[in-house]
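Predict the structure of YaiO family outer membrane beta-barrel protein.
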Amino acid sequence: MRRSLAAVTAAVAALVVQAAPAVAQDSVYDRAVAARLAGDPARAVALLEPWLAAHPSDADALVQYGYALLALGEYDRAEQAFADTLSLAPDYADAREGMALAAARRSDGTAARRSFILAEGALSDLDRGQRDWHELGLAASLTAGERSTLDLRGSWYERFGIRDSEFGALLTHRAGQDLWLRIGGSFAPDADFRPEVGASAGLDYRFAPHSVASIDAGWQQFPAQTIWTLRPGFTQYLGGGRYAVTLQASAAAASGRDVLVGASMRGDYFAGDRTRLFAGAASGPETGLGIVRQTTSLFFGGEVALGADVSLLGSAGREWSGIGADRNEARIGLKLLL
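Done. Here is the predicted structure for YaiO family outer membrane beta-barrel protein.
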């Protein structure tokens, strides 16, 4: 009898030991799902990472991990989690939906956007022996709720030995699932060549899953004249949102003057969530000196993450001007996520 009781006790103990990992898994899984659904994806990630390190073949946990990363805007890592899930379970519908959602979010300009501060500077080397141009700027992009972003900026310019300071704000609001509206303004105290006051308005409309149409209009009161601008454009996202091609037309006119028109083309490659490259060309009206002049330019640049919250930005370009000297420009900036 004692042997029978001992055998039963041993068998029960063995079952408990074998079931312990499953109980632990259920506990971690349930807590992670609860955290994600409660709007705390960071906690879900923190709960799931140790479990997945020990149990990399847990498809359900991988899916939850992917959706938590997606909520944090970590699109590359989310896609990898969904891809790992599909390698284990090719018919896992939630993982396939997650892959599609990650691609859509990557091409959605306001999805999971974080506030940041950007400090940058630029130097232009002018031909014909003219004095270099200098520029310094400080900008802040602040999320205002789930649907709005407020961009603030201040810039200092030096052109031909003359200095100007300009301050501006731009409010962008997601008015619908596929519609973004923006309105902005700027002013320059004691302006010499920057606009004394300016106003702008525009919109983006996504008319297809990866296609966005845009239009922007602007009014600027310079010391010498008033200038109006209009810029319609189109952006096509490719490769699941990793590539983008933007075409834009432009028109500008000063009071009582003819309208000048032009166009630009730009290509972007999003290598990672905070790593990108871009290049483009433009030919058309430019108003940076307070007059409307025809220019042609080539440019390229990019952004690379230096750490979890810091990125380095840089660009270079060449501009040929119909009025005044041609120039080379180099720009560098540092972005801090908040």
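Helices lie at 2-37, 41-54, 59-71, 75-88, 93-106.
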